[in-house]
Design brief:
Oligomer: homodimer
Shape of chain A: elongated
CATH class of chain A: Alpha Beta
Strand content of chain A: 25-35%
CATH topology of chain A: Maf protein
CATH architecture of chain A: Alpha-Beta Complex
Number of helices of chain A: 7
Number of domains of chain A: 1
Largest sheet of chain A: 7 strands, mixed
Radius of gyration of chain A: 18 Å
């Protein structure tokens, strides 16, 4: 441990509680060699009352997920929320296949912005860090065949903006400006930085 | 099939030959619902004679992989090559842990460019498309603890520039400008476009 102390790093983190049902977020955290316990939350995903700037909206939802999470699982809790914004309009998860089709048609050939807010909270110390990261995403021009096939795959239905940048959704995107993982739903480098501020080092052994 | 003809799309593609040993490229193509057959090639990965502009270099290597691939597997052959460039210096795969450490130290806190060239070739028609995509990658400032831990994970050793943007390597990168999959080793949207030009549609059912 003297090595990590010398470098100003911190304690090793082995497990986190995830206040999100997103399989992408779980997968991303697991790829960091963390054990992930998904914890239930009373937060209602329904965005019926969603209004305001996308940055603030994502942060409000991420904080609500963290606050309403049940007090189970590992001490370090991570919550996040992602919204997609195009021309001042905000896209959450589509309400069905027609809605998914309309969202993808709107995004086709254009650039939109993805906002992901995160909250990292240590129940042991009560300390918390939060932030919002945004990434610009350029879509290729999509044919109706492509949109119909992608919607039929079921992939868009549980995702803000009706697409996932991983898997076949990668074919939709020509370039991004910013952090890729923000588009997937969790800004990894920012979350790593927040954990370091709370005294945890993802590189410690 | 009349639907795909009407939309100007093409035939459905079910399987490809991959003239590359990279497990990332295989995984990316599999995520597009393609069956992937890795085919052997006489191409020697050793970059001892690597010189020239990174764009040209990557394309030369990708073409060599495609040209020297054994004539087995599905008719559509995909080859690719990735190089990392910083200040006119080109980073291929590291020659060992010390080399990996030196590369990561050089990349720390700075922006570099990743070039991935691809060749898509249809053995049935003899037609071919190729191209190079580049993406700028900003690294966070890395502590020696982080570099040592990341090198010890073994992850850097088979990758150009000594890192993979997926998994724990995602913690190293704060932002990118361009296509994410170019950094992973295969520009998906560009390869999809090349396949469409050759008459194949990844969205056809």
């Amino acid at each position: 441990m003297s090595e990590t102390s010398r470098s100003g790093a911190g304690r090793r983190l082995e497990a986190v509680s995830l206040a999100s049902q997103s399989p992408r977020r779980k997968e991303l955290l697991r790829a960091l060699a963390l054990r992930v316990v998904v914890i239930p939350s009373d937060f209602d995903e329904d965005r019926a009352e969603a209004a305001g700037e996308p940055e603030q909206l994502a942060l409000t939802f991420a904080c609500a997920k963290a606050r309403m999470a049940k007090a189970t699982g590992p001490a370090v809790v991570i919550a996040a929320d992602t919204v997609v914004a195009l021309d001042g309009q905000i896209f959450g998860k589509p309400k069905g296949t027609a809605d998914a089709h309309a969202m993808l048609r709107a995004l086709s050939g254009r650039e939109h912005t993805v906002y992901t807010a995160f909250v990292v909270c240590d129940r042991g110390t009560g300390e918390e860090r939060s932030g919002v990261e945004s990434t610009r995403v350029q879509f290729s021009a999509l044919s109706d065949t492509a949109i119909t096939a992608y919607v039929a795959s079921g992939d868009p239905l549980d995702k803000a903006g009706a697409y996932g940048i991983q898997g076949r959704g990668g074919l939709l995107v020509t370039s991004i400006v910013g952090d890729f993982y923000t588009v997937m739903g969790l800004p990894l480098a920012r979350v790593g930085g927040a954990l370091a501020e709370l005294g945890y080092d993802l590189w410690a052994s």
